[in-house]
Amino acid sequence: MTEKNVETGARAGGFHYAYAIVASCIAITFLPCALVLSCAGIFFTPVSQYFGVATAEFTLYFSVLNIAQMLTLPVAGKLLSRLDARAVLSAAVVLCALGLAGMSQCQAMWQFYVCGAVLGVGVCPLIYLSVPTLVNAWCVKRVGFFVGLCMAFTGIGGVVFNPVGTALINSGAEGWRTAYLVFAAIVAVGTLPFTLLVVRSRPEDKGLAPYGAGEAAAGDGAKAELSGVPAERAMRMPAFFALAAFCGVITLNQTIYQFLAGYAQSFADTMPAIAAASGIVASAAMGGQAVGKVVLGAVNDRSVHAGVVLGIGAGVAGITLMWLFPGALALLLVGSFLFGVVYAMTTVQTPLLVRTVFGSADYTNIYSRVSMVGSLMSAVAAVLWGLVVDSAGGYPLMFVLGYGCMAVCLVLALFSLKARPHVA
Known about the structure:
Blueprint (H helix, E strand, L loop, with lengths): L2 H10 L5 H21 L5 H8 L3 H28 L2 H21 L3 H30 L4 H27 L5 H23 L33 H4 L3 H17 L5 H6 L6 H5 L1 H25 L1 H21 L4 H16 L4 H10 L4 H28 L3 H25 L6
Helix pairs in contact: 2-6, 2-7, 2-8, 3-4, 4-6, 4-17, 5-6, 5-8, 6-7, 6-17, 7-8, 7-13, 10-15, 10-16, 10-17, 10-18, 13-14, 13-15, 14-15, 14-18, 16-17, 17-18
């Protein structure tokens, strides 16, 4: 059976197995990624109070988690490119479940740090590599849309499970233990059926051609780069270093989100209504992130250049509205929402830029190394912005530096696209 016939046969019933792969990716981002990363904050205060320690002493586990991710990325990239994705991703899910279950049993801070390392190793291939790797392998059209759709569920998972976790935490003096244990069970029961039974590394494993194979691709973002540059060669190119720097700086810029609620609360004396809406301000950014991921993905399918400009433009507009019109709640919320769009670039624009610049042949190994810079930045970004906010410059300085971060990202992204090698 020829590739064309295989593809036609896959469509005869109106369904391509690539949709099952996308569903699996959604399960991965909605459950383990969201429960480990997007829901971490609800535990910070109750666990710290339970053990009678400073919040920073407990949240240090999250820095350990990020460092573990950084160290795991190149290894995970190699494993995912060489081994069956079912084995790698299922092992990662098990580690996430074990890490969360371990958190429920901890009796001392050092034990949380050990569990943080386990969580970092487990969630690393899930949040950074699983979606772009599988979507790249299974699709040659609508790649950006599918990546954006799947990654949007990290935020949606946070919206769904943060209230569930909070209710469990408030159920008793050690409700946080129950919440961690329930989260562990949800991760294992909800995700392993997909990673074990549904996921396949590539269409050939099911006797299929990729979704959209043989169709004309429209725009540089939708073009299927089935060949590409080997990682060893790519890592010596200026475009690689530009993309690595882009990943780090866009991650630094993304972390401003964590301080938007504090920015609203800083007006407690002059505009108490704005301070009281701090939670809504943060939620608006999360909404912008979820919508932004889908929109950016769809725009990238037509033009990666347009995706870069849209994301950065939205971020600049968002900061401008929040900074200049903090007393107008509607504009503050719009600004926070728009900033959520540039936040979305971290996990959507970065992998699509890597694919566009270097192709798909050795994509996983290249992207894993680019992502190391972002993971390292995640470990220190909150501390850096905290120092900025606590300085004499305060929130205005944070916004000015945010402008600078986005300008640098725009230059780096456009340079990488201009300097990309010709992929045969």
